[in-house]
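Researcher: Hi, I'm a grad student and pretty new to this. My advisor asked me to get structures for two proteins we've been looking at. I'm not sure of the right format, so I'll just paste the first sequence and hope you can take it from there.
Model: That works fine. Here's the first sequence with its structure tokens right after it:
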Amino acid sequence: MRLKKLFITLLFAVIGGAAMAQVPDNDKIFAAINDSNSEYYYPNLMMRYQAGDALTDLEYHYLYYGYAYQASYRPLNDNPGMTKVQNIMARIAIDTPSVADIDELIAACSEAMEQDPFSPKLLNIMAYAYGTAGDRKREKMYADHLAAILRTIASSGTGAKEKEPMHIILFSHGIDFIAAKGWNQRKGKIISRTVEFVPFDVPKDKLKGYYFDYSRIYWNKPDDYTFKRERTWQINNLKPREYK
């Protein structure tokens, strides 16, 4: 089994400047993904995504933000599959996992992705798992998905100001976005009904942190619900791969 080292440098060479600014237009997205004649009709896009077809950045944009309108979008529900993934990652040897461990990890990730199909954390772990198993096709598929989802988030806003937030569909995606850069963050602060500010541990590129629009998460929030969110994806120091 050929193993690769895991790097932080993976993707932001890919992300930087790759996608034009594309602030989500909710009405436009809703209309397009529900029109069976549209190139962005959601069932077709999701089928292509799961099959590993090549998608444009605009198609990823409709996929990611269109997920907020799907029946399976339950951002405030527990994700048992994610708990299984975390438990597996906490105990396996990252550099020398057993075949059984990798098989179990892939099964747990697949379960978790039924609820969170665009999780950068899960996409990263799937690329690791399939790469470790020697399946280069699926390794590349998940790595490509990961790069594209991070580009989608990056292109939705600068994140530098409250009025220019990056848009996310789960709180963890914002934390994953920061972690993919190899940066650490402190506890986020809800600063408005739609925006959270996540400060870095130390300023980066003259920025103290990123602003994220989390409004989609609470579209269908129960009145008595209090959200408790996880804050990191770097389990056992697993970090995004560098693909050459």
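Researcher: Oh nice, that was easy. Here's the second one.
Model: And its structure:
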Amino acid sequence: MLTIAQETYDAIVAHAKRDHPDEACGVVAGPEGSDRADRFIPMVNAAGSPTFYEFDSAELLALYKDMDARDEEPVVVYHSHTATEAYPSRTDIGLASEPNAHYVLVSTREHGNSEGPVEFRSYRIIDGVVTEEEVTITPTGTPDQRESTP
């Protein structure tokens, strides 16, 4: 089960809507081994594509160095789908290299960057096996939640 704060959920959804019609991507980091999604980090989709996302390699390297210095790991790896459901594509499954991460997909296909709900789903992807999991959203303002941008 993925547990995230309302403000982190809202930030992921806002990023997905803002980048629509291109896919958005990012990470929510947390203390190593904790499964606590604390620090929202929106990233640039280097592919600039409505059908594919790719982290910028220099930005990703800097992020991993920063997480290492903070004793953090990627708790959530998220991206959006702009024209399809929030389910991992074959490419998404192939790129899933963090066995402890929750892979969140947000579909903006119905409303794009306009007001309206999105489809928000979370998965564990281990050795190519996709397992959907429940998402629990906690109230905003819990003391352990921090937000940052690069």
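Researcher: Is there anything I should tell my advisor about the second?
Model: You could mention this: The chain is about 20% helix and 35% strand.
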